[in-house]
Every structure is written in structure tokens, then in C-alpha cells.
Amino acid sequence: MTLLRSIGWMLLIMAGLSVAARLNRALVEDRRTYGITQADPAINAPPLVVFTTVALGGFRGIIADMLWMRSSRLQYEGKYFELVQLADWITKLEPRFTDVWAYHAWNLTYNISVLFSSPEDRWRWVRHGVTLLRDDGLRYNPDEPRLLFELGWFFQHKIGGDTDDAHLYYKQAWAADMQSLFGGGRPDFARIARDPVLRHTLMTDYKLDPALMQQIERDHGPLDWRLPQAHAIYWATRSRLVGGLVDAGFADRMIYQSMTDAFRRGLLVTREQNDRFILAPHLELLPYVLRVYEKAIENPTARVRAETGFRHFLREAIVLLYMYGRADQARGLLPRLRSMDPDISPTATLEQIVFSIYAGQGDQLTTETAYASVESSFYQSLFWQAMGDAEKAHGYDQLARLVWQRFMAPRMDRPDLKQRTGLPPIEEIRESARQRMVDSRSGRP
Amino acid sequence: MNRILAIALLSLRSAVRSRMVAVLMCLLVGIMALLPWVIKGDGTISGTIHLLLSYSLGLATTVIAMALLWAGSFAVSAEIQDKTIQTLATKPVSRFHLWAGKWLGLNLLGFLLLAFCGIVTYALLQAQLRSDRWTPDDLATVQRQLTAHAEFRPDQPDFEAQARHELVATPDRTRPDDRSPAERLQQRRQTLIAEFYSVRPLNRNQWTFSPLRGQTEDRPLILRYRFTSSVIGQDAVSGRWLIGTAEKPDQFTHTITHTPRVWNEITVPRHPDWSAKPIVVTYLNEDPGGATLLLDMDQGLTLLAPADPFAVNYLRVLLVKFAQLSFLTALGITAGCLFSLPVAALVSMYILLLVQLGSYIQGMATNEFSLTSAAGIERTTIDLALIAIYKGLAFLLSPLVPGDELTRLANGLLVTWWSALRHLTLQGLLMALLLGAFASYALNRRELALPQS
User: Is A124 within 8 Å of B41 when comparing Cβ atoms?
Assistant: First the structure.
């Protein structure tokens, strides 16, 4: 009798579960249709996350709250050891909540990294944030434009920008990583296709899809993949592919800003005799940058910003091209600049425009522009020297030294500023210009 | 005594045979084996060691507590339910002996489990220290981190008395003031504390520490501090520390550019004068950015003196943990004496949950703002009720909430023998025996031989 009763109960339970399973499917569909919850069922998620989300049910919110409070308290108390683990747990408890991923990755990358004085320590925290988003956040939310954009932002701003004292260390560390992967700045896609280990590392560890990289190369030119701009463009492109019109606007902005940055300092100049890390203008990207801006202007939600950015880019590009002896290319941009910038006189010559833009920038030069100005002036000087025009060569040499001195003068008494934003010794820049000239004569890029 | 021992052995045997306890023990082994490999640290050896100690040992003691609470609840209530207790109750064994026997037996189980976890964690720690991943510099850092340091804080004036004196001596009548006297006193006191811990730009401040009497070590001291800067976003502040006596305040000088909001440490060679005379620590604020430096007012400035090797400190922390487990065991058995098995188990687990949430509850109780429904709006009845509930819970839980011994151990701070002894006698013995007395009273009042009992 007892056995029969037990069997009866078992059958009843099984029937109940079966009905619940059928109803659940419809409920899940309704939840998705009406957007009732941000936490979609954990599709493709690993068993641990599925177990956590299902088994804990509504309690996972409470546990996430408690972990979050602990995380805030530890951060306030200056105890950072656990924060990576706590961020991992909190995000796993709410794996579809993109704001949670974005917040924790940002917190590790921006808020905590700057609390350390040594660049190595800072880089560790920046990397924790990047990996949290890239390896876990995107794993559970593969087509989430917001997370893709945030990841791109880390590359564009945190690693690629110069607001952080340790930005050069970040760039070097990332470049070293990429160098070991690609063996240089330009990936050999044929080798990647042949080498399954390299392909696996690229796709699994760095989440870089070679097909998309090739597509980006076709659209945006020969980028140096050791530098963060290329990666910002990669993640922004992915965000653009899956996002709506507004997301595309944000992604476009990141792309054209990163392209501008790559034009300005997208060439990694390495010297075998020393380990100095020099970023120089990548002038070959010009047609690609122009195309990116033109495309961005087509998006009505982003037109105004894109036009402003384009105008600034054109002013900067004209000066840079002129300085590097590409006056024809600079002259070719003038009609477009005149049509967009009312401050530019329609009758002014290229030289007059270059001088006015250059003098206007004098007090606001960034390190990279200052470097480019000094190096390009030396380049011009060497060029005219080789051409036998000693007067012109001397003039450019004077200009280079003047820019260096004016830029470095306020930094001489401030070692921290000098270390962060200072230029290399002047003779070293002159040597770099000489090397560039030798390379250009021998046909090397 | 023999009776108690006999009951203890029986209850130990019964607990070991319990399926639930076996499951929890398996969980314990799983935690000890797997947790160190799955937790994500910050990539430093200090972080790894910190997590190993606080997570592995912390989680292990929670699981042991669950096992002991379950076994404790089971020990009496199941015997009452099965009526096997009648064989004991008819013998000349007092109810207190019955309770004490169960408690002793389960304490022995707890001791063995804790010793197992302690040994495994210690072995894992040693294995980490022998790993090839770490550089000699890393290992030197972690050796310093693991050595138990005694803490010395600066002598503080009586801020309350000083504030009271100032308000009476020089009342500010120049401007209207609608604050109550208590508010004015409180604010003046806060100002005095802030002044005590702050250093204005191009200025200095001094703190006096009592002599390091009884310190026979000659290893260097560590000046540990944390501060905030008045300049928002400032990454580094420069200044100079002077350490010495009142007569010679600059026996040690150290110029530094340090970072706000993180813990900064400076190694200070010990001077012979400091064991007899008060130590004067001076900070000269030489920051060109004009930042005022404010030291953390709770624990912002500490002198650390190496006191004991890690193993001794570790042993004391295990003793403190054992005292906590002993009390929880007593709680479980007492619940089993009062209620039937399911109710006793539920009550025990609820208490364990409350204990684990203790710091969260205490935090909520002290921060009334977080319990108020909306900022700037007067508290509702529900808000007031919530505040009262949290304050009451915090008060009730205060003897149960585990201390921060594991954190102190991982941070290289000394847990004294006195602290360990206090936990063992107060929490592990006296409070447990009080529960035992209450449980035996309840058992005496309870009819054990009823057919439905």
C-alpha cells in the first residue's frame, strides 16, 4: 500500500513538472515579448551560471546586493584583493544585466587602477576590467552593443588616450602582447588561416575575428594592430554591426575619433638600439579617415558632431601633411576645409593657412602633435639640406628647436608632467627624422 | 564525569553516522580542495594569500558551523522523537549532564574538522609560497604581510572634554545659531578630530605614540597610513615624515610622494630611544599643489611592530574560530532541547544565516539613512519600525557576529593570546554553559515520555 502511494506521488510530481515545463516555455516567451525582465534565461551560459540563476531564483538579487555592498565597503577601506572575485560573482548572478558588467569593468579599469602608483599595478587592474568585459561580459551577452562599445572605449580612451600617468606603459604592454601574437604591426592573415594555434589564440583569448579584422583593414586602411586605436575600431565596428541607429552613431564617433588618432600617432616607431616607444603620424591613412568621416556624416543622428570632428581633423591634417612635405595632399584638402570652416579665408594660400593654424595651436599642443611638429620640421630640414637649400634647412631646424623648447619649457620644473607628457631629447627626435628619411628613400613604409 | 564522557562519545558516533553531516563534510573537503583554484585574486601574491586565508578558512568554518548546528539540533530532538532518550532519562543522569555530554562530543567533532581545515589551509599556503610564479620581491612582501604585527595608535586627547570646554569658555555669540547644544558639541568634537588628523598646506602636524615597552624585537617598524587629499582628482601628494622623540624629532626622515585613498607603508628602522620614550611622528606637508592632507580618522595612522611568526598568530585565530563553533554547537543542542527536529534545524540555520549576515545587519543599523525610504522626506512609521528591527537584531547578534580575526591574520596584524583566551572563556565556555543551563531547565520542564512527544 505504501509502495503504491509512493508511486502515485511520484507520478503526480512528474505530471506536475511536465505541465510546469510546458507553461514555463510560454511564460519565458511572454517575458521576452513584453520586455518584463532584463534577465533573460541564461541561453548558452555555462552550467554554473544556469544553476545559480535558476536555483537561487529571486534570492540572487539579494545575494548580489550583499556582494555589492561588500565590494563597496572593501573599496572604501582600500582593500582591493577581493574586488576581482566579487565583481565576477556579482556579474555572474546577473549575467544579462549589461549595466552591471559595464559598471564593474569601469570600476576596475578606471577607479581602482589609478589608486596604484606603479604602472605595472595599474596595468593589472586595467587588464582585469578589459578581461571582465571581453571574456565574461561578452560571453553571456555576445550581441550587446553597449558592452562592445564600452570595451572599445577602454582601448580608445584608457589605453589609447593620455589622461592616465601610466598610459605609455599600457600602450607598451599591449603592443608587446600584440607583437608576440602578430610578429609586428600588420597581421599576416594567410599565416593566421594556416596556423590553427594562432587562430585559436586570436579568437579564444583575444576574441578577435580574423575575418572582421580583414574587413576593417579593407575599410579603414593598414592599421597597426599593436596600437589601441585598431582595437577600439574593431570593437566599435562590432558594436555597429549589432546595434541600432543610436548605437551606430556612438560607434561611428568612436571609429572616426580612433581613425583621427591613428592618423596622428598610429605608427609605432621602434629602434633596435634602444627600447624607446615612439608613436608617429600614419599619413597613409588619410583617404580612409576622409571616407570614415564622410560616412559618419550620412547618419542624421550624428551629423553635427561628425562635421565638427571632420573640420578639426582637416585643420590638423593640412598642417601635418605640409610639415611632412606633402604639400600637394594638403592643398587637396583645402577646398573641403574652406567649405566647412568660415574662419578660413577663401583667398588664403596653403602656407598662410598652415601658419595660422599652427600658431593658433602653439599653446595647446598635445605631446604627439608636438612630437610630430618637431620631427616633421627636422625631416623638412634634412630634406632641404639634401636638396642643397641650406637656408630653408636651417629655418626648419630652427623651427623644430623652437617648438621643442616652447613645449618643454613649462615641463622642465615639473618632473611628473615631464615624465607623463614630455618629449624625448631633441637629438633623438632628429635621429628619428633622419631614419624616416632613409627609410623613405629605400622604399620602406 | 564518566557519564558526560560516555554521552559525548555516543553523540560523536551518532553525528559521524548522520547523512547530513557526511554530506557537509564532503562539501568541506570539496571546498578545501577546489576553492583555492577557482577564486580570482588581483594577480598579486598578497591578494592570493589574502583570499586563500579569508575565503578557504572562512567558508570552511561556515560549513563546519552548519554541520555542528545540524548535528546539535539532531542530537536531542531526534532522540526525543525516536524515544531513545527514554533509556537515558530513566538512568541517573541529570539533564545538564545529558546536554554537556552532547556538547562535548560535538565540540570534539568540531575541533577535529577545524584542525583538518587548518592544516590543509596551512599546507596550501606553504605550497603557494613555494610556487615558481613569484619573484623574490613578491616573497619578501608576503613574508612581511604574514608576520604578525602589534599595532600602536597615536595618543588621542579627550575630544569630548575639549569640545565641551571650548564651547563653555568661548561661546560664539557673533552669529545666530539654531543648533541644539548637543549638535554644537558633536560638531565641535568632529572638527577637533579632523584637525587632529589633518595637515594643512605647507604646515606640519605631530602625533605622539606611547613608548614601545616590552618590545624586544629589533626588526624595523612600519608606519602605515591612509589619507585623502583636499584636491579632488589628485593622484600624488608630496611631503616628509619625521620620526623621533620630543627632544630629537628627526631621528628618522623620509621624503615621499604618496597616493591618496590607498594604504601607504614606510619601513622605519627602530631607534633604541623608542622603547623608553614616547615616539613623536611629524608630517610636513610640502605639496606644491596646496593640498590639505586628511588621515583616515578611524585607523589612519598606525605604527606596526613585528611581534610573532605567522604560525603562532594562525593558531590563535583557529582558537578564536573554535570558540565561535563551540558556541554555535551549544546553540544547536539547545534548539534541539526546545523544539522538534525540523523546527530546531530551521531555527539553527536561521540563526547561522543571521550570524553570517551580522556585519550587514550591523552596517544597516548604524547607517539609518539607508533604511529611510527617501532622502529629504520625514521618516514614515515603516522606516522607524525597520530601524528599530535592525537595531534590535544588531544588539542581539553582537555576541555572535564573528570578529575580523581572519582579516587581521591576512593583513599581518596580531591576534593576541588575550583575545584568543577571552573568546574561549566568554564565548566558547561561559555563554555556551549559560545556554546549557537554560536547555537543561527546559528539558526538566519537558515531558520526555509522552507517546506523542
Answer: no
Note whether B46 and A81 are within 8 A (CB): yes
Cell numbers for B30, please give them: 570539496
How many whole angstroms separate alpha carbon A180 and alpha carbon B76?
A: 66
Instruction: Give the pairing of strands B279-285 and B237-244.
Output: antiparallel
CB contact under 8 A, B42 and A125: yes
Q: Which of B42, B353, B413 best tests the A interface by mutation, with the highest count of A CBs <10 A?
A: B42
Q: What share of chain B is helix, strand, coil (3-state, %, to 5)?
A: 60, 15, 30
Pick from A66, A73, A78: CB nearest B261? A78
DSSP labels for B60-88? Answer: HHHHHHHHHHHHHHHHHHHHHHHTTHHHH
Average pLDDT over residues B224-238: 83
Mapping DSSP to helix (H, G, I), strand (E, B) and coil, where does residue B138 land?
helix
Q: What are the two backbone dihedrals, phi and then psi, of residue B61, each rounded to the nearest 5 degrees?
A: -65, -30
Q: What are phi and psi of B179, to 5 degrees?
A: -80, 150
Q: By three-state DSSP, how is residue B247 classified? A: coil
Cell of B10: 555516543
CB–CB of B363 and A73 under 8 A? yes
Task: Say how far apart CA B425 and CA A154 lie, in whole Å.
Answer: 55
Enter the C-alpha cell of residue B121: 589551509
Q: Can you tell me the ipTM of this complex?
A: 0.73
Hey, of B262, B298, B362, which one would you mutate to test binding to chain A, going by the most A CBs within 10 A of its CB? B262
Between CA B335 and CA B323 the distance in angstroms is 19
The pLDDT averaged over each successive group of 10 residues in chain A (445 residues) is: 85 91 80 62 57 71 83 82 85 86 92 86 92 91 91 95 89 92 89 92 93 94 94 95 83 94 86 64 92 88 87 90 81 90 82 69 71 86 78 72 80 82 89 83 53
Q: Is the pLDDT of residue B274 over 70?
A: yes
Closest residue of B to A164, CA-based? Answer: B235
pLDDT at B453: 45
Q: How many alpha carbons lie under 13 Å from residue A269 in its C-beta half-sphere?
A: 22
CB hemisphere CA count around B68 (13 angstroms) = 32
Listed by start position, the domains of chain B span 2-138+310-353+412-445, 152-308
Do A81 and B50 count as a contact with CB atoms less than 8 A apart?
yes
Please name which of B151, B179, B451, B105 lies closest in space to residue B307, comparing C-alpha atoms: B151
CB contact under 8 A, B51 and A115: no
- Residues of B with CB below 8 A from A128's CB? 42-43
> Of the given ranges (A75-79, B214-218, B373-377), which has the lowest mean pLDDT?
B373-377
Judging contacts by C-beta atoms under 8 Å, the chain B residues touching residue A125 are 42
Chain B positions touching chain A (beta carbons under 8 Å): 39-44, 46-47, 50-51, 54-55, 226, 235-236, 257-259, 261-263, 357, 360, 363
> pLDDT tier at B175 (50, 70, 90 boundaries)?
low
Question: What CATH number matches the domain at B152-308, 2.60.120, 1.10.10, 3.40.30, 3.40.630?
Answer: 2.60.120
SS3 breakdown of chain A: % helix, strand, coil, rounded to 5? 75, 0, 20
Q: What is the pLDDT of residues B345-369, one digit of tens each?
A: 888 888 888 887 777 787 777 776 6
Characterize B203-215 residue by residue with b for buried, 16 or more Cβ atoms within 10 angstroms of its Cβ, and e for exposed: eebebebeebeeb
Query: How many angstroms separate the CA atoms of B385 and B368, rounded?
Result: 11
Estimate to the nearest angstrom the gap between the alpha carbon of A124 and the chain centroid.
Answer: 17
Question: Can you give the pTM of this predicted structure?
Answer: 0.72
B199 in Cβ contact with B239 (< 8 Å): yes
As beta bridge partners, residue B228 has B294
Three-state secondary structure string covering A22-64: HHHHHHHHHHHHHCCCCCCCCCCCCHHHHHHHHHHCCHHHHHH
